[in-house]
Design brief:
The protein has three helices and 13 strands, in the order βαβββββββββαββαβ. It is mostly beta strands. The protein has one domain: Alpha-Beta Complex (hypothetical protein yedk fold). The two termini are 19 Å apart. The model has no long low-confidence stretch (mean pLDDT 91).
Length: 202
């Protein structure tokens, strides 16, 4: 799964890397660890520009934000089956990151854990595959952009680190980012989608 990550790149770096304009200012203070369970605004790249979205996708039928705690991640293998995601499989986005965090269980109950920071080899800035939706908050009348990180079966390295559920985010190779955004069959990025990763024990 992916519930914690880092994104320390500035606006100019993002625009240069993804070749799209930034529509909003990035907060001046970047958190070293972005906690998905706080449902923060994260940066996403869609087909047109770079914007911010609340982490935790809300489908149009959601009556409130309670669902967000269950939609931080979306399994790529079951996207077409889940009501929260199946109508948004063509609402593709990239979610930029400079690293993500996972905890390796050292015992069966997870009472002892070791934290790792994972990055892409030779890539200071990379992107998770994501989906987004513009959700209407009927209480405030505002449209809120929301998103989810796509996950897949763990590769060899991540199977050793995320040694309970053996999942990992789909981290796109740079050459495949345009295909993800333009709607190439999402199943081509699964089982597991291979990326060269480096893990640092913290």
């Amino acid at each position: 799964m992916c519930f914690y990550f880092q994104m320390s790149a500035d606006a100019q770096t993002l625009e240069n890397r993804f070749k799209k304009p930034f529509q909003e200012s990035i907060p001046k203070t970047q958190k070293n660890i972005i906690n998905g369970f706080e449902h923060p605004k994260v940066i996403i790249v869609n087909n047109k520009n770079i914007v911010q979205a609340e982490w935790g996708l809300l489908p149009n039928w959601a009556k409130g934000k309670t669902l967000q705690k269950s939609t931080l991640n979306a399994r790529i293998e079951t996207l077409s089956e889940k009501p929260s995601f199946k109508y948004y499989t063509n609402n593709r986005c990239l979610i930029p990151a400079t690293g993500f965090f996972e905890w390796q269980w050292l015992d069966e109950k997870g009472k002892q854990k070791e934290q790792y920071m994972i990055q892409v080899i030779n890539e200071n800035l990379f992107a998770f595959a994501g989906l987004y939706n513009d959700w209407l908050d009927h209480t405030s009348g505002k449209i809120i952009t929301t998103c989810t990180v796509i996950t897949t079966q763990a590769n060899e390295l991540m199977s050793q680190i995320h040694n309970t559920k053996k999942r990992m985010p789909v981290i796109l190779k740079t050459k495949d980012e345009a295909d993800w955004l333009t709607g190439k069959d999402y199943r081509d990025f699964a089982y597991p989608y291979q990326t060269e990763l480096n893990a640092l024990k913290l």
